[in-house]
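Hi Y.,

Following your request, here is the sequence exactly as I used it, all 353 residues.
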Amino acid sequence: MRATVVVPLLVALAGGRCQDAPPPDSREAQVARGQAAYARTCAICHGRAGEGYAADNAPALANEDFLVTASDQYLYETIARGRPGTVMSGWAKEHGGPYDEGQVQDLVAWLRSWQKGTMRPLDQARLQPGSHDGKALYVRHCASCHGAGGIEGPYNRLAHPQLLDIASDGFLRASIVEGRSGTPMKGFRGLLQPAEVDAIIAYLRQNPARVPAVGRPAATASATVALPVGGEPAFPGDARFIGVDLAAREMRRGARILFVDARPPSDFQAGHIRGAVNLPFYEAPERAGEIPKGTWVLTYCGCPHAESGEVAGVLRGRGHDRVAVLDEGWGPWKTRGYPVEEPPASASSGIGP
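Below is the corresponding structure, written out as tokens. Let me know if you'd prefer a different format.
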């Protein structure tokens, strides 16, 4: 595949006169739209310049080793579908996000604008693992970064069915062998033989993790949120963070707490704190007025503080004087068995929704 060379969005000068602006559907306009969308919803985790690791070890998207091996289809599907069960949200409308097909394509164009070189040829030959034990090799070389089951992290969830569904064997081979320069992902060239690399990939493909199966979201409209009932929670008046154990205790005591989920709807519909309302971080400036004053508000996300911190900051700026971030966020709340609302337990998948 040949790389698409994208010219930075500049005002061109010719003979001291400005040329006409590019037409609305030009590549330059597409990149500009993608840049704006990225700043709105992606930079909070992946960094303003795609450097990565701004929140929850989100990978570096501007990494050249990544861009020259990831196809446009891979980028599109990753953005659109996300990784259910992780902090990577699905951003396409059909998966609960804010973007239509064209807007997701705009984001792909913006990511491509960071690419400097041509696409790297990938070895798409059939896997030849030989007699190597892929599980043992994975545990020895990969589990410390990607989790014992390939889904726990802290870095990319290699056994995630969405990843395995859209990543070719050639892409996975290149990722393992070449690594990602300038990131924690080292290359294994010379450390693993080709058959050992294939054995790891075969093991992952044969043992995908089970994750929530998120269906098409129901249409929702903005509405005024009702003030919860109950007594005052025993929170410090100047608290900026409230631990999940204290929050759960006060919730079960019947205290008046409004939980505000700062994640996109794609994550909210997959599971949220019981009684929570959804205010995506990127909509907070426009929709903050929906959150009533006069009660404690706890914002939360899965990062665990990036998106919820954005919403908390907006609410404080609008005069809410009792707002705190739920420390540790959604993951520990769910893991510890505190009250949640989720789709039926049977709605999970080993191949991705």
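The two ends are 28 Å apart (CA to CA).

Thanks again,
Q.
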